[in-house]
Design brief:
The structure holds two protein chains of two kinds. By secondary structure, chain A is mainly α. Helices cover 77% and strands 3% of the residues of chain A. Chain A has 20 helices and two strands. Chain A is globular. The chains are: A mainly alpha, B mainly alpha. The A-B interface holds A 60-67, 106, 109, 131, 134-136, 138-139, 141-142, 145-146, 149-150, 156-157, 160-161, 164-165, 168-169, 172-173, 175-176, 179-180, 182-183 and B 320, 322-323, 326-327, 330, 367, 381, 386-388, 392, 396-397, 399-401, 403-405, 409, 412-413, 416-417, 419-420, 423-424, 427, 431, 434-436, 469-471, 474.
């Protein structure tokens, strides 16, 4: 029931907003805020619950034609999805609060789309049925398409169409693989499919792995597929960017872990060096891209490509430390990049430009803003004591265990990351106030401070006491690592034909 | 024929053809109401009552299939009944959206409705035809009224042109079919599907005949390379008629294609797969470059016919007729409500039926008529195959029959990647409605009437129902 509510309360909220009169902006905002707050509280209740398995839902949905396979309405949480569910729950009220500043037209439609978006994201993380997962996966595309297309910047139509077609192309390839997978395993239950796939070798699963991985790689995005992201981020309204960076991209990394790695361990082991390479190159390439940007929002977007490279690197290192680091880094990236996008949005609302050279000396005009910006940047570059450090450290450790070379390459990314973010900070906050328009800027108001405080609290909390968060993921990570070890053993026995009659895995 | 033989022939047949009898009676009563003074008000009631009775008849048949009736010339099985429901829905959608569409031709609405029902009768006959001759009668019963309907707005050149074009090419299609049927008869010695299934039709004469028959069916369905008439005829015909043709005719052609596909050699599967892929590609690319919405939807219909053809291909390859039929019917049911709804909305928006609805004229529709724009959005997403709509599940079922039973992963991959192109133009409609500012062309649009709005709402509800709770519909077919 709890999990049903997480998914369908936003839908109810969206319908409620739909029935309000068009001009009643405060009412629409109020409904949206209330709905997301309730969902946030419920997601914390899930976090507090000690027996996650008891929350699972399993109801009949429909039977696939021409077979006896029952597609179920199956929901559940485990260590992998738990952090994501809480992140989605907590971030959404913040997003709604942030819209009060920049969404002033067609508020009703916007609130409907934000809430539908939340339904889609929750569904993706909670679904434990493959068909249901795919359902929510694609439903999640539509709201963002509208959010960028209606409330976006100048090139919004181009950006939104590119985003949609790019991700949709990846999704349909996954659909074909999912269809084949369902019949191969004779089930749509993700756990059952995972069990039946775990024992299969590389040659049996490699193309399924490739199809799923392609879809997720586009979503994350992993290097050669990243071009839609800077466009979408730059053109999206602030709240859209926050959702995109905070949660939506995590659907891709979550998919890597849940499907590519957990479901096809043998293929993941085989592909690991290549995926790690893509991750490491992404880190460095993203950093270089970011360094070249003059538009501050685009800079953050490119830094996002770089930071997600860490997640990919850590995931495909396929070590316990790397996986744990990646899980925590998914949350970190959502918090710190989300915070950066919020801050970029706040200054854009005041000054209506995103060009770095139009700023300078903001710290003296907006001291509170400067504090928050600095925290966000330091978290992003991985200052010890803040969240970013924990994730990056664990990931690099995990990567070093697997392939030291890519860990070394990635470490340079840490340095470049510090360079471009601190350079941007200098240009933005310090130095003399050159432009007259900047002198009259007002500092953050209570709403803006209030919505960022929870994010900052989490940033510090994860940085100081990561074990509180990591502990909840441990059991699930251990299961995956076990599967990976079995797959490695299986591949070794396959390579040694002399050892016959050994264990069948 | 002695009375006893006649009785034996008809015995137990009524349950099988009840729906068709109801439609026939409806036609007669409507014609009667035409000449009776003061009965004009009754006509819409009669029309609706006919559809309702026929609908109940098909539902009854779906529950208890009667099997071959009338000496085997009509096979009243579950598939025929399910297709019947699809045809009836298509007729209902086209008719409701067409209320108030005609202005100059308003006095002739009665004839319009009679023609529509006759065509419906033809479809029903086609979907259950047990021999080639019965099928041919169905085909003609479908086509001849449609020729007239296409040219129904006789004051307009493009409508008359559409009628003439459809007639000339349609006559050609009918001739192909007849010639093919004759060759099959010459080769295999029978026109009954049951007999043919026993004796087989693999001699060269029959094979040529079958190829001709298949061509005629593909012509009606608008599959490459027989699709050239589609854009012009669909665009020129009155929009309610286009709605009817796009959904109903296509369904009827595929219904019989599936029925007779067992006669085709399995080797035909791969060539049909190529034809299907080309059809999808050509339909989508054509739709991508057209700015006229009616033409765009017409060409997108070509692409959808290609996907339906893939269901036939999977049947040929795997021999699993039930799965192919279920997925094709599901696909078509979703298509009836999404494409039917979309064409229907165009009919509502065309101002007095004079101006074409273009991408430019619907710009900003979202802020002026949010309800209409929202309905159109749902239809576009369903046609594009986004989940929570019937279009997605239809596609899922067709592709799963292709991937799983027929083991044609490559074909499925190409087809589904081609359908990404389709999303390009469906999304453009959504962009125009919600994300672009109104232009002067918007003034050409007319204000939709309340009945049309309600019809759109019903279509939206059906599309979502088909997309979220499929078990009810799947259960009907089992």
């Amino acid at each position: 029931m709890l999990l049903d509510l997480l998914i369908f309360l936003p839908l109810v909220g969206a319908l409620a907003v739909g029935f309000t009169p068009r001009g009643a902006v405060s009412l629409q905002r109020g409904i949206a805020l209330l709905t997301t707050l309730v969902v946030a509280v419920l997601s914390l209740v899930v976090w507090g619950s000690h027996d996650l398995a008891s929350l699972a839902v399993d109801k009949a949905w429909f039977t696939l034609p021409g077979s006896q396979i029952d597609v179920g309405y199956r929901l559940g949480v485990d260590g992998i999805s738990l952090l994501m569910v809480v992140l989605t729950g907590v971030l959404m009220p913040i997003v709604i609060l942030s819209t009060f500043g920049h969404i002033t037209e067609r508020v009703k439609e916007f609130m409907i789309w934000v809430l539908v978006m939340q339904m889609g994201m929750m569904g993706v993380f909670l679904a434990t049925d493959l068909v249901l997962f795919y359902f929510f996966w694609e439903i999640g595309l539509v709201p963002l398409y509208f959010m960028v297309g209606i409330w976006g910047g100048k090139r919004r139509l181009y950006a939104t169409l590119k985003f949609f077609l790019y991700t949709f192309a990846g999704s349909v390839v996954m659909l074909i693989a999912a269809i084949a997978l369902v019949y191969k395993a004779q089930s749509t239950d993700i756990a059952a499919i995972t069990d039946s796939m775990a024992a299969l070798g590389v040659s049996d699963t490699i193309w399924l792995f490739a199809a799923f991985t392609l879809a997720f790689a586009i979503k994350v995005p992993v290097l050669p597929f990243h071009t839609w992201l800077p466009d979408a981020h730059t053109e999206a309204p602030t709240s859209g960017s926050v959702i995109l960076a905070g949660v939506l991209l995590k659907m891709g990394t979550y998919g890597f872990l849940r499907f590519s790695i957990a479901m096809f361990p043998a293929a993941a082991v085989a592909a690991s060096p290549y995926m790690m390479a893509l991750g490491a190159i992404g880190i460095v390439y993203g950093a270089f891209l970011a360094m070249a940007q003059t538009d501050i929002k685009r800079l953050v977007a490119c830094s996002s490509v770089s930071h997600l490279g860490y997640v990919v690197l850590g995931l495909f290192a396929l070590t316990r430390v790397g996986l744990a680091g990646s899980l925590i880094q998914m949350v970190n990236h959502g918090l710190s990049t989300g915070l950066l996008f919020l801050l970029v949005g706040m200054i854009y609302e005041r000054r209506h430009t995103r060009q770095l050279d139009q700023y300078g000396g903001i710290a003296s005009v907006m001291p509170i803003y400067a504090i928050f910006w600095t925290i966000a940047v330091l978290s992003s570059v991985g200052l010890p004591g803040l969240n970013g450090f924990v994730g990056e450290y664990l990931i690099l450790l995990g990567a070093f265990e697997a392939i030291p070379f890519w860990a070394v390459v990635s470490v340079t990314g840490v340095i470049f990351g510090a360079i471009y973010l601190l350079m941007a900070t200098r240009k933005l906050l310090y130095g003399p106030v050159v432009h007259e328009a900047n002198r009259k800027l007002t500092d953050l108001n209570l709403r803006e401070i209030g919505l960022m405080v929870p994010v900052v609290v989490l940033i510090v909390w994860i940085g100081v006491k990561p074990s509180y968060f990591l502990d909840r993921t441990e059991a699930s990570v251990a299961t995956i690592v076990e599967r990976l070890d079995q797959a490695r053993d299986g591949m070794q026995t396959a390579q040694l034909p002399a050892v016959k009659g050994g264990e069948s895995r | 024929m002695t009375p006893e033989a006649l009785e034996a022939l008809l015995h137990g047949s009524f349950a099988g053809i009840g729906a068709m009898v109801a439609v026939t009676l409806g036609i007669l009563l409507l014609l009667l109401a035409e000449i009776l003074p003061g009965a004009a008000k009754l006509k819409p009631v009669l029309f609706v009552a006919t559809l309702v009775v026929a609908f109940l008849g098909e539902l009854q048949l779906l529950g208890e299939p009667a099997g071959p009736v009338l000496g085997g010339s009509y096979i009243a099985n579950q598939a025929a009944a399910a297709w019947g429901l699809v045809f009836l829905s298509a007729t209902a959608v086209a008719w409701v959206f067409g209320r108030g569409y005609y202005t100059l031709e308003k006095p002739f609405q009665g004839e319009h409705d009679v023609l529509m029902l006759s065509s419906l009768l033809g479809m029903m006959l086609m979907s259950g035809a047990g021999d080639l001759i019965t099928f041919f009668i169905g085909l003609e019963l479908l086509s001849v009224p449609l020729y007239a309907l296409c040219g129904f707005r006789r004051a307009r050149n493009d409508s008359v042109e559409a009628g003439l074009k459809y007639f000339l090419l349609g006559a050609f299609g009918s001739a192909l079919f007849l010639y093919g049927a004759a060759l099959v008869y010459a080769g295999a010695g029978s026109v009954s599907l049951t007999t043919l299934s026993q004796v087989g039709a693999s001699d060269s004469l029959s094979l040529i005949g079958l190829a001709l028959i298949a061509s005629a069916l593909l012509f009606k369905a608008g599959v490459f390379p027989f699709h050239f008439w589609i854009p012009d005829v669909y665009q020129g015909a009155p929009t309610p008629v286009t709605t009817f043709m796009a959904t109903g005719t296509k369904a009827a052609a595929f219904a019989f294609l599936l029925n007779m596909a067992f006669l085709l050699p399995p080797a035909a599967a791969s060539s049909l797969a190529w034809i299907a892929l080309l059809t999808i590609a050509i339909g989508n690319l054509g739709a991508l470059v057209s700015r006229d919405l009616k033409r765009m939807l017409a060409l997108s219909g070509v692409a959808h016919a290609g996907i339906l053809l893939l269901a036939v291909v999977s049947y040929l390859k795997s021999g699993d007729v039930e799965l192919a039929e279920e997925s094709a019917i599901y696909y078509m049911a979703a298509y009836v409500f999404s494409a039917g709804g979309a064409f229907g909305l165009l009919a509502l928006l065309e101002s007095k039926g004079d101006e074409a609805t273009t991408l430019d004229s619907i710009k900003g529709l979202g802020s002026r008529r949010p309800g209409i724009a929202a309905a159109m959005t749902v239809f576009m997403l369903s046609l594009g195959g986004i989940p929570a709509t019937g279009g997605f599940l239809g596609k899922y079922f067709v592709f799963s029959s292709l991937v799983v039973k027929a083991d044609m992963v490559g074909v499925a991959l190409i087809a589904i990647l081609l359908s990404v192109i389709a999303l390009g133009y469906y999304l453009r409609v959504i962009i125009a409605m919600w994300m672009e500012a109104e232009t002067e062309d918007a003034a050409q649009l007319s204000e939709p009437k309340r009945l049309g709005g309600a019809a759109a709402a019903v279509c939206v509800a059906m599309v979502l129902w088909l997309g979220v709770l499929p078990d009810f519909f799947l259960g009907l077919m089992r």
